[in-house]
Specification:
mainly beta; 9 strands
Length: about 140
Amino acid sequence: MQIAKGTQVVLNFALSLENDQEIDSTFDRKPATLVVGDGNLPEGFESLLIGLEAGAKQTFEVPPEKAFSQPNPNNIQVMKRSDFAADIELEVGSVVSFADANNSELPGVIKQIEESAVTVDFNHPLAGQRLKFRVEIIAVNAAP
């Protein structure tokens, strides 16, 4: 059976930067199981799997536009230092969790800290990155 929208796929994957620095991998743990189109995998990655069958092993080069997009300058916000709890230790590069308008969790990366202002980047940490996506398809089944 070939992978198509709505099929259940069991696979191992590895995601790495262009310089081969690995970001995530299931090859050393339990394989991932997903239904194509369920939102667990970005659409740009899912589209690469369409048509593959069990036993397939492939490595794809994924441009930013098909992965986590280009950084959006509007997603960089300067906030008052007083907007943060006094007991929070702010450090450049640390990730802080915020609530968005729907009360969903929204992570932001601290980019700069000044006496009265903190610059927070709400872009995905991999925005703008060209990635390598290595997959090994273990099984393809009709969705349960």
